[in-house]
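Researcher: Please translate sequence to structure tokens.
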Amino acid sequence: MKVSFTADITGTVSADGYNGGVTGTATLSYLAVNKADMFAFADKVNTADNLFAGTTVELANDIDLENDAWTPIGTSNVSNNAKNSFQGVFDGKGYTISGLNVSSAKQLSDVGLFGTIYHTGTVKNLTVDGSLQANVSPIGELYMGGIVAFNDGGTVQNCASNVTITVADNVNSGSNTSIGGLVGWNVFSDAGFVPLIENCSAHGDITVGDTAGGRSVAVGGLVGLSDGGTIQNSFAAGTVKSNCDSDASSRYFGGLIGRGANMGEVENCYATGDVTGDQYTHAGGIAGILDSSCSLTSCYATGEVIGNRAGGIAGGYAASDSIYKCIALNPSVERSGSDEARRVAYISVNGELLSSENAAYSGMLNSDDTTVWDVPNDIEGQRNGADMTRVEICSDGTLGGRFTAAGGWTTENGKLPGFGAAVDMPPHLKAVKVEITGVTANSNLIYSQTAKDVDATQASAGAASTANLSYEYAGARFTAPTRLPPRTRATIPVRSR
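Model: Translation complete:
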């Protein structure tokens, strides 16, 4: 590890083992050049209190850890999170750390590239590729995150995690388990430091095995437990899956966050991965559950959701929580147990109303494979959200003005809002293009996907023969008569483009 610095010569600064003593006063910058530098850096943090407080560590280039067994940078302590935790600034300078491999054959509690960052700890401008596996039960709680396992009042900015996370069967934490594609537990510090995650993404899949019941398990595509603080202008693209079979009432799985608590704010975010819960899970396209004055604002989800209590946006919410200007664009939201599912959010504890500004894809399927959602009263209607048809979704890149440049979004008609570039429509929201050869009228039609089956001969629009009738769905061509794949089938009436 090399040391670079600028200083006014007024005294002596010790780099504590890095090239000896250095004369001067200023914030030092430690430059990591290779794998050996990264392992040396991790060892320094894990063996000395507060070594990097007030300093910056930078990457000089991409670094491959070559899948060597990695010990996370910074380890927390139940009575003192500051002990051996990273408190400086880690600036990846836009480079990538690849080959991350943490396979917890030993009883690690904080599993990630960083174990714990604390208060002034910041990780920014970094991409991480690799995998995390929890194979044995930890001592105490279990936190897993592709970049940071436990963020105690710190900051994660402009980072991308391409890390897959797997928890084996029978891995049991002492009380809480928090797992996220980017950060495991994002927590408001007792000293008033507010955690911040912004301009970040997570792309790895997360799978949690069968664990014993009785504990809180929060799993999210980006963050497991968001316990205060802010998450903004970020997204998750990986799948979140529970293989749990054991009875437990506190299991929360979400496409973006598993659980939001203690006035946490999530704004201008989206998730595209499927969320597959078990028969005891709260599951949501964005959040598994919200409680204690949390808010979701201008968020959307496009993945399938399955859970005992399921919602296209949230699997549950409490009286003090807010879901505002969010859109559930999921192909389906289904219950896996004895409870219910709603297009936007599952029933709250006390039956509170949601904002009328929320909406949902009108073709979303329920547990009965229909688009008919029970609306017994106004409360239920708001939990299901206002209808948005495919035509409305495809023709307005701002989705009714909910996602605009003022919120950091890039929009384009025919695509979904994104950051830096608009996002391609998922297959279930793409228009079905129909071509009829040998017919001069109505030669290019769009089907409305509101039922399962279609007899393409009905779309001949007066053609003398259907022998040459064909249509296209999401790039795949079909010849009449035929059937579209399950969950993507079209039906009449047809509409001219």
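Researcher: Any highlights?
Model: The chain has two domains: 30-54+62-428, 431-496.
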